[in-house]
Amino acid sequence: MAVRVDGVKILQETIALAQLASDIRAWGQELGFADVRITDVDLSAAESGLAHWLAAGCHGDMDYMASHGTKRSRPAELVPGTLRVISARMDYLPRDAGDDWRERETARLADPRAAVVSVYARGRDYHKILRSRLQRLAERIEAAVGAMGFRVFTDSAPVMEVALADKAGLGWRGKHTLLLNRDAGSMYFLGEIYTDLSLPTDAPTSAHCGQCEACITACPTGAITGPQRLDARRCISYLTIEHKGAIPEALRPLMGNRILGCDDCQLVCPWNKFAQRAVLPDFDVRNGLNNATLLELFAWTEDEFDTRLQGSAIRRIGHERWLRNIAVALGNAADAGLAGDADIVAALWGRAGHASALVAEHVAWALARHGAAIA
């Protein structure tokens, strides 16, 4: 009889946890997440790949990638007691993006006067938005089950978010290393809740890239060195956001007019014809960053930069790197039919004596590209 009672109890608990997992998905969607899945914490299959990537130095000067030992690939070491990871994705393509959004983005890349900012960064800072909503989701779960151990993450700690989302079945890792979903492409953010609840897990999905290597071919700097292999040291997103020093001269001409981030591998991906629009207004374009010119943004003072980009993820790079990036793009305009353009040269001369040696060096390089080298 005891065995039977225990068996009934286990069955009841299993049913209750399955219902809770279903509720979590529904609650997540109410909070603006496109999908929510659950996985266990075994990332042993991804751990060796991370170790080799770090050993090869592909993380560049992102020292934080190597500073936490195995906590990144072993969630229970980062947050003791973690049994499951609730992985969520939130679409960020602006609500008013037309069906031709990829064609429009590609056209701007060909306009040497245009300042191209990665789509994800044109609205409000996703870190705060996702973290707040993940916290609300976790608190709703706790209200339903009682006290539980949990911690929320959004690109804010040593978490292998793509590996976890892949394992949870939110999508598969594409050849550009981003997560792909058959119904939504890759234009979304990921966030996680580490929890000590023994929730039922979701099954991973299969990969659907096939023989396509459009993303590898499209990478302007050759940073995608093979399927699912990225050398961050060559990646424009890394160079314009994470890298704090001088941008290697050999890579500058390859950056074109991309001043913060790079979407090229996503623009050519066939799956992004299914990219979904954001449900939250937070990801609507601010400061006209979908149509801004290089000269317009280069003219911002530090106070304007800080004020205009209040609440934006861009603000974290600071005005100095903002000017560094735009100077490179203005220099590259010389190779796109605007060599010696009076307005561009005048704007660069206006920053030639900048107090920052970093800015001054990139401005001098840009002037030289226009045949106006500083004596």
UniProtKB/TrEMBL annotation:
GO BP, one annotated term: tRNA queuosine(34) biosynthetic process
Cross-referenced Pfam families: Fer4_16, QueG_DUF1730
Cofactor note: Binds 2 [4Fe-4S] clusters per monomer.
Binding-site list for [4Fe-4S] cluster 2: 219, 235, 262, 265
UniProt binding sites for tRNA: 244
Residue positions binding cob(II)alamin: 72, 155, 179, 190, 237, 262-263
Positions of the 4Fe-4S ferredoxin-type domain: 197-229
HAMAP family referenced in this protein's UniProt entry, alphabetically: QueG
Function: Catalyzes the conversion of epoxyqueuosine (oQ) to queuosine (Q), which is a hypermodified base found in the wobble positions of tRNA(Asp), tRNA(Asn), tRNA(His) and tRNA(Tyr).
Listed name of the protein: Epoxyqueuosine reductase
